[in-house]
Design goal:
There is one protein chain. By secondary structure, the protein is mainly alpha-helical. The protein is built from 10 helices and 2 strands. Strands 1-2 form a two-stranded antiparallel sheet.
Length: about 260
């Protein structure tokens, strides 16, 4: 997913109008998910408007790009798409920002990463049981240190999912006054909502071998499942800690009313 440079924050009226139009077309069933996806990619390639990029990125979660279909979201998805259209037509900003991570959290991540390296180094001496317990302990400490900070940044949106990406009714009213030509589309019931299709991470809510039980692929699936657990332990956690230590910060959604950019 291409992102425009941070320095470019100009309002591209044409790109926003085009994006709003395609949202309407998809919601009304006039174009399919594949056509909608192609339109979003074209718009992102043609503009440096950060709001257009952010809206297009958020829309990607509302359809299945692996199966061609018409809009089949529920009322909540419909309303969310209408609020995104309102942002586009108001001239306001909807961007993904980075909150600076405190120095003590970066130092904590480095110390945890060093501890992890020590656990790897002494693996054969401490044995697999102690190794697994130590890994779980480090994962728990990492979650306690970093997840609450990320959740706090997006708390208004998480606590008010029916208002997202806005934090309050007052904020919605402010954008609505600025979007004088915005007309909310009337909802009409579509096909039942179905989740996106994607490969879930190994061991997430399922045993990979269970999917292939009774088939010739069962032994291979069991091996892949074990390899997946090792991968999560040995690769993912160190990369996460390294990201916490040297990364830009935590992403959060920022909605800025028109004229306050």
């Amino acid at each position: 997913m291409n992102e425009p440079p941070d320095s470019l924050n100009n309002v591209d009226v044409f790109a926003r109008a085009k994006l709003s139009f395609y949202i309407s077309q998809f919601a009304n069933g006039r174009i399919t998910s594949h056509q909608f996806d192609d339109a979003l990619e074209d718009i992102k390639d043609q503009t440096a408007d950060r709001t257009a990029h952010t809206v297009a990125g958020q829309l990607w979660f509302l359809y299945d790009d692996m199966e061609e279909h018409n809009f089949r979201g529920g009322k909540a998805v419909w309303d969310y798409m209408q609020r995104l259209r309102m942002i586009l037509e108001s001239g306001g900003e909807y961007t993904i920002e980075y909150a600076p991570r405190s120095a003590w959290r970066r130092v904590s991540a480095i110390l945890l990463l060093l501890g992890l390296c020590c656990i790897y180094y002494f693996f054969f001496e401490i044995g697999p049981e102690v190794f697994l317990c130590a890994m779980l302990a480090l994962a728990g400490v990492s979650s306690a240190l970093f997840i609450p900070e990320r959740d706090t940044l997006n708390a208004p949106i998480r606590n008010n999912p029916k208002l997202g990406p806005f934090a309050s009714i007052k904020e919605i009213a402010l954008f609505r006054r600025k979007a004088s030509r915005f007309v909310k589309m009337k909802y009409c019931e579509r096909q039942p909502e179905r989740p996106r299709k994607f490969w879930r991470p190994i061991l997430e809510d399922q045993d990979l071998a269970e999917l292939f039980r009774g088939t010739a692929l069962e032994p291979l699936a069991s091996l892949v499942g074990s390899a997946g657990l090792a991968f999560l332990n040995l690769i993912v956690l160190p990369l996460l800690l390294l990201g916490y230590a040297i990364g830009k910060g935590d992403k959060f959604i920022k909605v800025t009313p028109p004229g306050q950019s």
